[in-house]
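User: Thanks for the earlier help. One more: dihydrouracil dehydrogenase (NAD(+)). Can you show the sequence and predicted structure together?

Assistant: Of course, both are below.
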Amino acid sequence: MTKLNTSYLGLTLKNPIIVGSSGLTNSIDKIQKLVDAGAGAVVLKSLFEEQINHDINKQIQGGHGLDYPEAMDYIAGYTKNNSVGEYLQLIADAKSKFNIPIIASINCFSTHEWLSFAKQIEKAGADAIELNVHVVNTDKYTDAIAIEELYYSVAENLNKALHIPFAIKMGDNFANIVGVVNKLYAQGAKGVVLFNRFFQPDIDINELKLGSASVFSTPADIRRTLRWVAIVSDKVKQIDVSASTGNHDGEAVIKQLLAGATTVQVCSAIYQKGPKVISDMLNELSYWMEAKGFKDIEDFRGMMSYRKIKDPVMYERAQFMRYFSNME
């Protein structure tokens, strides 16, 4: 009998599959279906500081509170408290109903709001927080280090303010991913999520409008994460690595664990195939472990990581010449 339990951010999970932050996790009814399918943990849909501020501006621009500055302050405060309050209630309800870790998610852009939201989330009972930080830098005079420092500052401040663990969900657009992860660990982060899927613009050439590209990942996107999961899990051993993006079946879960992932986040596959895909992934993982003679996940986790394979340069290779040089 195989054992699928694992530990992530100091939390005990019955298996390594986590449902990623999305519309799949924004209500108790939806979370119930994910729990029934076997999810090891869920990351709640993000609390967006940007969305809250948008709602505030929408109320004010609609004519509410324009006559009196005090009224404007009241409308802003009410809208923010109402939005945050609904999120805190979701956390409390999920914690009271389900016996799996409930991880909150914050998507903000100002240090002050990160701390304000995070403290309230901790008080509401969340087991951990996943922090979604990303800055699109369009200033040609800004040094890359200035962007990195934002991440370090946020991690440091959260570490001082919270008692629950937190992970940083980051993109792959850093010059030194390993160095960034190492510094995040030094500032108190217990885990990193590799990688985020950001909004990607697309152009409609007929309507001449800017829109959004597909929000879903594809199985091929696992290549984005597999390399860095294998490298980071070896280079920064003290931090937990959650593999996100491109995980569409049990084989992808197995690959990420072999590379060294602590947990595997699933989202797009559930949207496309329904919650049952979680059960299918767990069954495939169990069958594979039995066939290979592995009793628990620690028996093989990281077996194919950067330092464990005979030729770690394979994870460093960036050019195709070796493979395509003989092709005409």
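User: Great, one quick takeaway?

Assistant: Residues 69-97 form the longest helix (29 residues).
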